[in-house]
Amino acid sequence: MSMWYHLFISHAWRYGDDYDRLCHLLNNASGFRWLNWSAPEDKPAIPPWMTVPNDVVLREIANKIGMADCVLVIAGMYATYSDWIQAEMDLAHSMGKPLVGIKPWGSERMPRAVYERTIEDVGWNTDSIVEAIRRRCSPR
Q: Is residue 106 a contact partner of residue 65, using CB atoms and an 8 Å limit?
């Protein structure tokens, strides 16, 4: 029986291409099965037509992170300035979820706000990402 990894990918909607590329890599990784608990722009935690306080959005994101075995952080320099990415990392940390940092394609640097909180950081490479998930996350 094949095991599944339940993942939450923390990312900035403004840089959704990175998120889409990462999902594509994971979907096409040989022998790797995963369930996506993220909140991408096309499937947000709260429908865009609803106006709700930030604490309600945060609670919905917390529910999604709570279902994940591991949180992946696409760690572009924008992560430093995104309150939501910071909040997602705080939630993951408070829940004891491993944080794996992924440097975006072509990026050499990772924000201090990310690498100080992650358990492991990897480059933009399918094998590196999948192996970090296997090392740091417990599948179901």
A: no
